[in-house]
Amino acid sequence: MIEVEKATYTVSRMAHLLGVSRSGYYAWAARQGAEPGPRAARRADLTVKIKVAHDASDGVNGAPRILADLREAGEVVSRKTVAKLMQENEIRGISPRPWRPVTTLPDPNPHSIPDLVARRFDRGELNAVWTSDITYLATGQGWLYLCAVRDGCSRRVIGYAFADNLHTDIVETALRRAVTFRDGDTTGVIFHADRGCQYTSAQLAQAAQDLGVRLSVGRTGVCWDNAQQESFWSTLKTEFYDRHHFATRAEAITAVSTWIETVYNRRRRHSALGQIDPVAFEHQLTTVADQAA
């Protein structure tokens, strides 16, 4: 008030009427024109860097992944500080929603396939367990189906295929692409999925025999038996697909393929991998193995 009315009344009179000291007013006025202190400057600098990191993630990442970005860039900062600055500046990550589409169509006459995984998807090495599932993707032309194959250790998507139907061909194509990507090395690989008819069919059993992989399926209606793959669908839908509209299946195929290859496999940090991306994690594993050899 004194600052606003000082052109009309003396500072002394207003200070007396308001019951404050003139020295207190002048000290306040000096602080307004002063440069921010080291702590304030540091917080402002961190806030800018947090906003840049958040924008670079397409507005997806929360405090844990942004903290990893900052530390990788050389910043010494705590998660608590990052979370507090994000809250103060209304910077929010995206949390997965508890939604799961029903894509499992049980085969009335399934082959006798055991569960070789028992929810132990990560065996500490590549090509031990591959997980797979099929999901629906809505487009302006109708449903598009996506089958993905991931390495249970690195979480990397190593094979995938799209189709406008739920025939077993989509699974066989994704599996064969994964085998090709891994240079045909399928020794001991367990290919794990749910009990959908595509995974228990005679066609896939023959393909698995040809490729030398061992089929494994979880229990009917128990999504936790393929939880790692369900988690991937949640990430895909929440962080990318449901934030856009695709008029055609072709548009959706191009966009999802790009997201898998450039964002999920090569940029998205995973807490289970020490906050690095799947490709970097695989590089670490192979480097350590080469050095130990």
How are the elements arranged and paired?
Layout: H1 2-5, H2 11-18, H3 22-33, H4 38-56, H5 63-72, H6 79-88, E1 129-139, E2 142-151, E3 157-163, H7 169-181, E4 190-193, H8 202-211, E5 214-217, H9 227-239, H10 249-264, H11 278-292
Parallel strand pairs: 1-4, 4-5
Antiparallel strand pairs: 1-2, 2-3
Helix pairs in contact: 4-5, 5-6, 7-8
Question: Can you walk me through this structure?
Answer:
The chain has 293 residues and is an alpha/beta fold. Helix content is 44%, strand content 12%. It has helices at 2-5, 11-18, 22-33, 38-56, 63-72, 79-88, 169-181, 202-211, 227-239, 249-264, 278-292, and strands spanning 129-139, 142-151, 157-163, 190-193, 214-217. Strands 3-2-1-4-5 form a 5-stranded mixed sheet, with helices on both faces. α4 (38-56) packs across α5 and α5 (63-72) crosses α6. The longest helix is centred in the first third of the chain and has 19 residues, at 38-56. The N and C termini lie far apart (75 Å). The model has no long low-confidence stretch (mean pLDDT 85).
